[in-house]
Amino acid sequence: MITTVVAGFVSYAIEMAVLGVIFAVVGVDVLKWIPLVLAVMVVLACFSLGLGLMLSVVNVYFRDMAHFIALFMQIWFYATPIIYPLTLVTSIQAGSNWASSLPLATLFQLNPMTGFVETLRDMLYSGQLPSWQPILYFTVVTVVAILLGNAVFGRLERRLAEEL
């Protein structure tokens, strides 16, 4: 599991380096954000590790979970403001009568990936220091994911070979 996360992190680091080169060519100053971007990337890798530890064990015991996980990941992708800004969700909620009763903005902000995306977007695209609240939130969620993933994996790993 750790090797998968490290391989994904290396791939992500290469992609971010290419993005940094593109920004430099275009004239966007991203050099000052590199240490904080790397820190966010490491926290994201730890979050992925925590989720991966939990889901890998669940997938061994419940074989059909892979299908549900794939479906959940696709829904989670569209529920994360990656291809649209979070302000779009709040503007839709403010401009609609039916959506004003739903706490859409709050639900989107509870998604830990929203914090990661918005923090990186603030630094790289807006060129501003991100707010500390999403950073604190996704860091706490990451610590919980690592601890929970380690506990679940540690508790169930003894029987993994038998189940496989």
Q: Report the structural category.
A: mainly alpha
Shape: globular
Number of domains: 1
Element pattern in H and E: HHHHHHHHH
- Biggest beta-sheet profile: none
Q: Strand share of the residues? A: under 5%
Low-confidence stretches: none
Helix content: over 70%
Number of β-strand runs: 0
DSSP summary: helix tally: 9
Q: Mind telling me the C-alpha Rg?
A: 18 Å
The N- and C-terminal alpha carbons lie at a distance of: 16 Å
Q: Would you tell me the overall average pLDDT?
A: 84
What brief labels describe this structure?
0% strand, 164 residues
Describe this structure in words.
The chain has helices at 2-26, 34-61, 65-78, 86-95, 97-100, 104-110, 112-126, 132-156, 160-163. α1 packs antiparallel against α2 (34-61) and α2 (34-61) runs parallel beside α8. The protein has nine helices and no strands. The protein has one domain. The protein is globular, with a radius of gyration of 18 Å.
Set down the secondary structure blueprint:
Layout: H1 2-26, H2 34-61, H3 65-78, H4 86-95, H5 97-100, H6 104-110, H7 112-126, H8 132-156, H9 160-163
Helix pairs in contact: 1-2, 2-8, 7-8
